[in-house]
Amino acid sequence: MGYQDIIKKVKDEERNDLSVKLTDVLLEAKGGAAVPSSVAKAILYKWKGDELSSDEGLKYLLKGAMKADEERSKTILDEMGLGVDR
Questions:
Q1: Which domain holds residue 49?
Q2: In a domain, 32, yes or no
Q3: Which among 17, 37, 23 has a CA at the least distance from the CA of 69?
Q4: Which of 6, 34, 59, 61 has its CA 20 to 30 A from that of 14?
């Protein structure tokens, strides 16, 4: 399942919660160095514009979180009922 497919499944009222959880993954991950600088910059740009809950913001957060800690990211998506295959 691609990032866009996952984002389409996120309910409007859950977008902020998902963005906070994925941000936590990024900030707490030991594998943070695995996040490409282009993705990190895009996340910072979206954060600056208060757009982390937008489609594009969630896409970059998902990309970054999956690189930093794939297992924890998948657990969060599973807990939110977003159907990520393991």
A1: 3-79
A2: yes
A3: 23
A4: 34
Predicted TM-score of the model (pTM): 0.91
User: 73: closest CA among 39, 37, 33, 23?
Assistant: 23
- Residue 42 falls within a domain, yes or no? yes
Q: What's the structural domain count of the chain?
A: 1
Tell me the three-class secondary structure of 13-57, residue by residue: HHHHHHHHHHHHHHHHCCCHHHCCHHHHHHHHHHHHCCCCCCHHH
Question: Each residue of 46-71: pLDDT tens digit?
Answer: 999 999 999 999 999 999 999 999 99
